[in-house]
Amino acid sequence: MSAPLMEFRGVSRRYGQGEAEVRALDQVDLTIRAGEFVAIMGPSGSGKSTAMNIIGCLDRPSAGDYLFQGTEVGRWSQDARALLRREFLGFVFQGFNLLPRTTALENVELPMIYKGIPRPERIARARQALARVGLAGREGHDPSQLSGGQQQRVAIARALAGNPKVILADEPTGNLDTQRSREIMALLTDLNREGITIVMVTHEEDMARHARRLIVFVDGHLARDQAQEATPC
Questions:
Q1: Rounded CA gap, 64 and 86, in Å?
Q2: pLDDT tens digits, residue range 113-138?
Q3: SMART domains from the xrefs (predicted)?
Q4: What CATH code would you report for 36-60+79-227?
Q5: Is this model's pTM higher than 0.85 or not?
């Protein structure tokens, strides 16, 4: 069995103090290995989004350790965690987060500008990423000219352009109809088969069934962690 890619060791996350204190996570142990497709579920306030934020180095534990590739990163500085995000993680959000008056190609290029990648290479990688998600020929379209499903594909291409080890998808089908949702899940499944680790937060049980592992949070605790047979796309 491969070594853990990401690991929580007794991770807690508290907000506020005294009587106002909220324990979003309470001594959670969790291991995610390279190549997994994990769905995270739970009711509102269960801790699933907090767990995702810590995994994505957008937040850090109040107690316990978060390890990435065997290195404790939860207490790294903000700049160091930003570098880890930039080099290893790709993010996909429910709201797409595309710049409205910017072409699909330019939206995909954007993260690579921050990496200092030369423009010719950025353009080549952005075109390749858009083709990979089935949007070859749509490079010059801005978001208003694309369907919701196509906009999410642009967002996935933007995440892919940085060659991430992990894609963190937060409600990636939340704004899509059933058919478009299935298309996005099929795309994420294909990317996982190519070796990219997928960690997805969702409230939709039918979308969670596409993952090969289901994690459920309740009241800040990991209530269920089980392998499952993924629904064919």
A1: 24
A2: 888 899 999 999 999 999 999 999 99
A3: AAA
A4: 3.40.50.300
A5: yes
